[in-house]
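In response to reviewer comment 3 from the previous cycle, which asked for concrete evidence that the modeling workflow produces usable outputs, we include below a single protein chain processed end to end. The sequence was submitted unchanged, and the resulting structure tokens are shown without manual editing.
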Amino acid sequence: MNETLARYIPEHAVTPVFELIVANQVHLKIVNERFTRHGDYRKGIGGKHEITVNASLNKYRFLITLIHEISHLVAFEKFGRNIKPHGNEWKYTFQRMMVPFIRPEIFPGQLLPLLARHFRNPSASSDTDATLSLALKQFDAENDKNYVFELPYGSVFRIRNGKIFKKIALRTKRYECLEIKTGKIYLFNPNAEVELIPG
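The workflow returned the following structure tokens.
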């Protein structure tokens, strides 16, 4: 298991993460990419704790995602199953579990202040923190995607399902984009990953 973990997370995180997996009896599955989420936790048949994490994540995002999912398990065990999945109990647990990893031996220096800020009040996904998400993106293997907030107004882009949109305006925190084919307006999070169509 340690050799497997070492392929996916920073070297100095391997032993403490392995200890968390053993202590919490986690059955970890590393899976092919799912576009809708980075990871998932569920209590399986017979009470087995199952966590899945996308294999395609870079090692820093993989580590954050894995700790995020273990935090669900720990929060449910400690506070009961009736808590909100990303409520205060989970935030408190995630903060406590993540802080020991926010060190220069584990994360690059430029990520440390962003992580420290994010973990004062962690959100359901690090993707909703545009600054942190952009900083983490630079460590991805392939970097051909753009974020909606980076595109100039009037840009045309494609999303994963093939639909094509034009960026129109900012509405509070999200961007209004026009679907070319139907003329309908959709709202996009600033850091939705899209493919820019040149010209």
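The helical segments are 2-8, 14-23, 59-79, 88-98, 112-118, 130-137. We consider this sufficient to address the reviewer's concern, and the full set will be provided in the supplementary archive.
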